[in-house]
Amino acid sequence: MKIAFFELEGWEEEFILKNFPEDQVFLSKEKINEFNLPPENDFEIVSIFVDSEINAKVLPHFPKMKFLTTRSTGYDHIDLNACRKKGVAVAYVPGYGDNTVAEFAFGLILSLTRKIYQAVDRVKENGSFSLKDLRGIDLKGKTIGVIGTGRIGKEAIKIAKGFGMNVLAYDPTPDKKFKESVGFDYVAFNDLLKSADIITIHCPYNEKTYHLVNKENIELVKPGAFLINTARGEIVETEALVYGLRMKILGGVAMDVLEEEGEIKDELNFLTKGHPKEAELKNMLYNHILMEMSNVLITPHNAFNSQEAIQRILSTTVENIKLFLAGKPTNLLK
Ligand code: NAI
To answer: Which positions are annotated as active-site residues?
Structure first.
């Protein structure tokens, strides 16, 4: 069997080769998208990460592909319909780092509410120990609004309870048992926006969650609230963030994910793409405005990135491939 792994960092190679001694294994640091297709393409199994984009334009390049497995929980970079039509089974890694992402979200929350980034920067860059403008707020007693109470959202709620916060949550599929055991309330989406001092997003990105937070409902947000997004950039309308911050509706924003995230990482590539859409260009400009704002923290899609989590991702991916080869595929996306 010919198996290809893309977007590797390097440390994974030994583990991968040890697990597939009988197979032809192709290892690459490159991502795959319609503008970046590998010259070698006769793989039956392909593994990617989140910066690759697999759609109807890319799939014909891999005529032999039968199985695609992403080393991530999010799978919005894969066109599942197009894969289905081509007879490609798609698997993912559910729940490799529920605590990992939730812990990172709290890192961002504390950085925003206690101005930790500004404080460190002041000492390191200026050697100044002045406390001017560094006063923050406590988390204890504040209300956190958790959007999406799946694996990561649940971990975030447990951490919030540890901080002594009041927890409100919104999820179209509430988990009543979890709610009873931990002690929090599910509320309507708009009520969450109105009541939360801190809003943290943990739902998947799909057509229903596209711009879930937008120019209209940003007006409902409690003045001064903080917004944290470690889910996917497209869940929040970037223009609404800029508006919300300028109008002081939002007290601060921290994002591990951005709309047009791939383009921001590689702006030169964006220019060579041909005819970028106006909306994409606008979002990139807004992203640059956000990066300049002192009450906005942006991290480079790093929430998953703990030693324990990446080892779990790789182990699950190897297992996904082994079970597919054994005719017992697991973690399939339907
Ligand atoms: P999950 O599938 O366990 O939970 C998602 C929850 O969101 C479910 O309870 C679902 O009912 C809920 N949901 C669906 N539509 C919703 C809506 N319109 N409003 C509110 N809630 C809604 O997923 P998990 O493992 O908790 O991951 C959540 C997301 O986090 C992933 O889809 C991925 O995009 C993102 N993620 C980001 C990472 C990073 O490094 N920044 C790493 C891992 C995941």
So the answer is: 232, 261, 301
The tens digit of pLDDT for each residue in 193-237 reads: 999 999 999 999 999 999 999 999 999 999 999 999 999 999 999
Q: pTM for this structure?
A: 0.92
251 alpha carbon – ligand 1 mean position (Å):
24
Convert the chain into a string of H (helix), E (strand) and C (coil): CEEEECCCCCCCHHHHHHHCCCCEEEECCCCCECCECCCCCCCCEEEECCCCCECCCCHHHCCCCCEEEECCCCCCCECHHHHHHCCCEEECCCCCCHHHHHHHHHHHHHHHHCCHHHHHHHHHHHCCCCCCCCCCCCCCCCEEEEECCCHHHHHHHHHHHHCCCEEEEECCCCCHHHHHHHCCEECCHHHHHHHCCEEEECCCCCCCCCCCECCCHHHHCCCCEEEEECCCHHHECHHHHHHHHHCCCEEEEEECCCCCHHHHHCHHHHHHCCCCCHHHHHHHHHHHHHHHCCCEEECCCCCCCCHHHHHHHHHHHHHHHHHHHCCCCCCECC
- Compute the distance from residue 93 Cα to the ligand 1 centre, in Å: 13
Residue range 151-210, pLDDT digits in tens: 999 999 999 999 999 999 999 999 999 999 999 999 999 999 999 999 999 999 999 999
